[in-house]
């Protein structure tokens, strides 16, 4: 049975054709999470990524209609991936775009640390932004109340002041998620100097964004540079939940900078440019944390997943047999 809905908007858009793909998306992330388990804590993140990718590709092959991978993950790390332009599904009239990270937070999985997820976003055909050779982007993310209030071109201090006023808080009560990377040393220092509380996960663009967007989330903002694949998936979740998001390309390495020569790096990507149609996002837990890790229980594989779609968030507990992968869903 379906899990309890944790949060739902007062007005929920009518579910579209893409909801036919929810079962496929859940199976893809679930089986990828299970496939990762033998590599949790092994130190071999690429092996875990490969296992997740293969499991996810197998499930997507059975999707109704034809899907096109617009955003694949792994190229920037020379990791295995569902490659950009890859076609999946059984064929037919239903056509859709896919943004995928078969294993978000590969390093956390390899280290056996909480926070790793298997993730996918599915959208109407032609509605996802294609970043091409851009692997990194600067991001500013918040709840819907901050739309038109904060801006990625403003200073961090100015955005804190404006966000605090819009949210009815003091700056000293704001919580901001910023990845713990050398490139963010100055940003983190400035945010803390202004009085904000800063959470600095070592990895996990998508998980950090969910800390802001979910109805139960405690963080108010996400700032800083992360991956473009994760950015597009985050945009799908933000659009589904009525959140605010902006982005700007932020190449980090010489080959990426060269590939983007002539591109307007000052252009601000609004949420509607990153995803301009119906979309939904699904994540399954790999190592626990925001979403529980898989476990074995009386001969079943038990997984937890999160579906973000059409103004709602729900968690799904699935029981699958190790041999047949037949789901018997239960709710939390």
SSE topology sketch:
Layout: E1 5-8, H1 22-36, H2 45-60, E2 65-71, E3 87-91, E4 95-104, H3 106-111, E5 117-124, E6 136-142, H4 156-167, E7 175-177, H5 185-193, E8 197-199, H6 205-213, E9 221-227, H7 228-240, E10 244-249, H8 254-259, E11 269-270, H9 271-274, E12 279-285, E13 295-297, E14 300-309, E15 312-321, E16 327-330
Helix pairs in contact: 1-2, 6-7
What would your notes on this structure say?
- The protein is of the alpha+beta class.
- It has two domains: 174 residues, Fructose-1,6-Bisphosphatase, Chain A, domain 1; 139 residues, D-Maltodextrin-Binding Protein, domain 2.
- 27% of the residues lie in helices and 29% in strands.
- Helix 1 runs antiparallel to helix 2.
- 49% of the residues are buried.
Order of helices and strands: EHHEEEHEEHEHEHEHEHEHEEEEE
Please give the largest β-sheet. 10 strands, mixed
Question: Could you tell me how far the N terminus lies from the C terminus, measured between alpha carbons in angstroms?
Answer: 10 Å
| SS summary, helix count | 9
> Can you say what the CATH homologous superfamily of the largest domain is?
Fructose-1,6-Bisphosphatase, subunit A, domain 1
The best one-word shape is globular
- Number of extended strands: 16
What is the CATH level 1 assignment of the largest domain? Alpha Beta
Mean pLDDT: 89
Work out the radius of gyration. Answer: 19 Å
Query: What is the helix fraction of residues, given as a range?
Result: 25-40%
The parts where pLDDT drops under 50 for at least 5 residues are 1-15, 324-332
Structure class: alpha+beta
User: At CATH's second level, what is the architecture of the largest domain?
Assistant: 2-Layer Sandwich
What percentage of amino acids are in beta strands? 25-35%
CATH level 3 topology of the largest domain: Fructose-1,6-Bisphosphatase, Chain A, domain 1
């Amino acid at each position: 049975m379906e899990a309890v809905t944790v949060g739902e908007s007062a007005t929920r858009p009518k579910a579209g054709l893409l909801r036919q793909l929810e079962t496929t998306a859940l199976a893809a992330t679930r089986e990828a999470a299970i496939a990762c388990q033998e590599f949790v804590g092994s130190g071999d993140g690429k092996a875990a990524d490969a296992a997740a990718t293969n499991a996810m590709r197998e499930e997507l092959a059975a999707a109704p209609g034809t899907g096109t991978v617009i955003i694949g993950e792994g190229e920037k790390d020379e990791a295995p991936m569902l490659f950009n332009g890859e076609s999946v599904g059984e064929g037919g009239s239903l056509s859709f775009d896919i943004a995928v990270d078969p294993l978000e937070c590969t390093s956390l999985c390899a280290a056996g640390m909480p926070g790793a997820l298997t993730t996918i976003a599915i959208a109407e055909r032609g509605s996802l932004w294609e970043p091409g050779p851009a692997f990194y982007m600067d991001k500013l993310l918040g709840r819907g109340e901050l739309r038109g209030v904060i801006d990625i071109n403003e200073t961090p201090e100015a955005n804190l002041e404006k966000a605090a006023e819009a949210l009815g808080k003091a700056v000293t009560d704001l919580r901001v998620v910023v990845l713990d990377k050398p490139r963010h040393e100055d940003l983190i220092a400035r945010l803390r100097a202004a009085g904000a509380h800063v959470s600095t996960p070592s990895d996990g663009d998508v998980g950090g964004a969910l800390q802001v967007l979910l109805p139960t989330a405690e963080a108010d903002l996400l700032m800083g540079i992360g991956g473009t694949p994760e950015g597009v998936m985050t945009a799908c979740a933000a659009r589904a939940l009525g959140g605010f998001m902006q982005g700007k390309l932020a190449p980090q390495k010489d080959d990426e900078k060269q590939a983007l020569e002539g591109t307007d790096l000052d252009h601000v990507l609004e949420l509607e440019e990153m995803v301009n149609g119906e979309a939904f996002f699904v994540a399954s837990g790999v190592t626990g944390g925001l979403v529980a890790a898989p476990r074995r229980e009386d001969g079943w594989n038990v997984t937890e997943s999160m579906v973000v779609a059409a103004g709602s968030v729900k968690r799904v507990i699935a029981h699958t047999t190790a041999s047949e992968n037949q789901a018997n869903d239960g709710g939390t």
